[in-house]
Amino acid sequence: MKKLLLTLLTLAVLGLWGVQGVCAAAPAADAVVLEPDFSFGTIAEGKKAIHTFMIENRGETELRVLRVETG
């Protein structure tokens, strides 16, 4: 019984190790924000402030921006 359990555990570990190599080799998107910080300075109340942040995809697959947060 212990031998069977040890064999199954070994196969599971080797299987997960193999999956890690496959996932690491897959092409991915690589987002690079050309200007990550921008200061708007002082903005009068009620006025709008607009700035465009340029994002470059240096990866091999489509880059999808799903969420943006302010800081």
Descriptive overview:
The mean pLDDT is 83. The protein has one helix and two strands, in the order H-E-E. Helix content is 34%, strand content 8%. A two-stranded antiparallel ribbon has the order 1-2. The protein is elongated. By secondary structure, it is α+β, with helices and mostly antiparallel strands.
Largest sheet: 2 strands, antiparallel
Question: How are the strands of the biggest sheet laid out side by side?
Answer: 1-2
Number of strands: 2
Query: Which percent range fits the helix content?
Result: 25-40%
Number of helices: 1
| Oligomer category | single chain
| C-alpha geometry | elongated
Give the total of domains.
Answer: 1
What is the succession of H and E elements? HEE
State the low-pLDDT regions, or none.
none
Distance between the termini: 56 Å
User: Rounded to an integer, what's the Rg over CA atoms?
Assistant: 24 Å
Structural class: alpha+beta
Strand content: 5-15%
Mean pLDDT: 83
Keywords: Signal
Protein name: DUF1573 domain-containing protein
Organism: Desulforapulum autotrophicum (strain ATCC 43914 / DSM 3382 / VKM B-1955 / HRM2)
Signal peptide: 1-24
